[in-house]
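Suppose a classmate hands you a notebook page containing two proteins, each written out with its sequence and a corresponding row of structure tokens. How would you begin to make sense of it? This section walks through that situation. The first entry is reproduced here exactly as it would appear on such a page.
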Amino acid sequence: MDTCTSPCTILELVLTEQTCVPYAYGNYSFQTIFDPYQHRYLVIVIGWNGHHRIHHCLLHLEYRDGIIWIHHDTTAAGITEPLIAAGINAAMIIRTSPPQSMAVPLEQDYMHKDGRC
């Protein structure tokens, strides 16, 4: 990472770039929400699906103690690789939830190996 570019600046740039990619399932828009004082970063999807309002958190990241915490990531490709490509050291990134591709349905969390709940 360039020593002149702070991790927070890189986060803002990468997340803003993510909003340039059209949403895969409809005509929705993105909003970035950056809190420069508490170093929290969100990307949300908003719009309408017929008569149903869509308001969904796509990404939620936080920069704390020199670490980028990925609290929520529902992007198709994941946010980790774009962060690394932008100059963030992989050792500075911690994912607090599994990637979307590895997510286990909630009901499986409560089942015994023999199938009982």
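The notebook's second entry, a different protein, reads as follows.
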Amino acid sequence: MKAFALALAVALTPFAASAGEITLETPMNGMTLAGGETDMAVFFTPSKDAAYRVHAAYVAKDNQSEPKRLMMDLKDGDALSFSLPGHLTEIYHFSRSGNAVTISSEPAAARTGSAS
């Protein structure tokens, strides 16, 4: 699995988004989102019960650690936000609307209103 995550991250690097948001509309066509602390390569596949299974691999910008993976199913109208383990100053948002999956990132202080 580590090889898959690394291969995905490397393969999608040319498609990195310069903004803090990407939108995916076609299964298996991924993109990379450049966050503040981490970079995340993301794609989705159809899943059961009309859900999309979102696959993501992320790496920290400040070290050479192995990519870490996450996976979730999103149905139309689903949305969630979270920080990644070890990267609590950045929040990722995942949402699905119709055939589109949108992923964005922002500093945690921007979401909570707290100062750094």
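A careful reader of the second entry would note: The chain has one domain: 2-112.
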